[in-house]
Amino acid sequence: MSRRLPPLNAVKAFEAAARHLSFTRAAEDLFVTQAAVSHQIKALEDYLGLKLFRRKNRSLLLTEEGQSYFLDIKDIFTQLSESTDRLLARSAIGSLTVSMSPSFAIQWLVPRLAKFSEKNPDIDVRIKAVDSDTGSLTDDVDVAIYYGQGNWPNLKADKLRNEVLIPVCSPSLLNGSKPLEKPSDLKYHTLLHDSNRQDWQAWFRQCEVTDINVNQGPIFSHSSLVLQAAAHGQGVALGYSVLARPDIKAGRLICPFPDVLVSKDAYFLVCQQAHAELGKIAAFRAWMLDMFAEESRSELLTP
Known about the structure:
9 helices, two-stranded antiparallel ribbon, alpha/beta, 21% strand, 303 residues
């Protein structure tokens, strides 16, 4: 036997209006217009065949039927709110699966993961490394780190940071027989490529350097590999600044030139729209955004 339920949006409007005895305040509560509240209540009255409100001396009053109905349903709304709070509290613990590229996991998240665990000991982060994103999250993934322009349909996308590509190499190269004093000196060094040769081409074009063969040097499938090759003195890489930062801070890599190549893409934290405020997902989102904001501020303060 099917339940006979009134239009639920109309019931919600009625509950808010009855609680405040004001269509205006009900509209503020529900983030709709006063006209929308009036329309919903009229629809509910038509459905029930009863008047629920009456106006007297510019005030809004409940009819006897309206008062009876409000007393019955207000407890239902209270129970629904409390049940939702309990569910969200339970969802704040347990495992959280985060999908990202292997390089982002190795270079950025893994070195910082203990900080998240200290603040959220009840959340068990599980890292799922993937070589590419499909623009949609599978059921086994709660949160993902995407690199792109933020236009993924039906996903909540928080921009973490814009990205620039920077030349990096081992400090030992500066003390070698072919010092790096200007971009044209790269003709004496091996170029290390991250997935393609186009980035170096664009960088040299920006620096107005035309006499260097960008078709030389190995190509690496992952950003972490090209950065490791550079750290081991195998050549000069054009690396993503976010991923290169740990090695630069540790002194394993240096930037021989200040010239950067601004990427059209950025790093985003994405999740399902409906899940963005759920316990453990909200906690991870807030932590990631705080970490990137903090590191951006520290970079601005670094002389």
